[in-house]
Amino acid sequence: MKNFNYWDDLYRNEKLEEFNxxxxxxxxxxxxxxxxxxxxxxxxxFSGYTIAAKKQIDNFRELFELLSQDIVxxxxxxxxxxxxxxxxxxxxxxVQQLVSELYKLKNFDWGGDYRSSxxxxxxxxxxxxxxxxxxxxxxxxxxxINPVVQGYVLNSWYNYWSSxxxxxxxxxxxxxxxTVGQIKNVDFFINDIPFDLKVTYLPVSNTLNVSVKxxxxxxx
Length: 220
Fold this sequence. Notes:
By secondary structure, the protein is an alpha+beta fold. It folds into 2 domains: 4-92 and 173-219, no CATH class; 95-164, no CATH class. The protein has helices at 4-12, 23-32, 37-47, 56-67, 71-91, 95-102, 116-127, 134-143, 150-171, and strands spanning 176-183, 186-190, 193-202, 207-214. Mean pLDDT is 84; it is low at 214-220.
């Protein structure tokens, strides 16, 4: 059987096509989506399993080896757990209020080109916050944010929270299994096939273009 390292190497090298056609690889991806420390603890409580590992990477490996012993049952167990967590995540988002906040942004203008260090700082401090309030964000410009980067922060805020709204549309569908923890290149599974959601803003029509990419693009 293909072991943990085999799937880990494929994932790190973004060779994801094999995950689409192998139940063990698919199991690896689902486990990765719940491998955050708090999710692992909750999953162990949910499943009744125990593991000895303490470090996150060791948790991942031990869980994979444990769940690989019964692939069918483990998929069912993970699906039930992920749906439970996802339901909480979805219901915690007030979509109507969030959409109302997003409509307050009238001009989509980045206002400059910035390096990744500024990007990470601004997104962490002002975009991915617990309270996605447009008015609260605007108030930060008066005392904290240099006007030069206002457009950048506003657009990042808009992109992040509009993606949350769109993701919730997909995640609410019964055939969609979300990734409750972030996985690079995989946002959710549709009938056990991993997909990547891409959202593009079209300034001419003032609309968001949504595409869902099946993760077989590495075939080239």
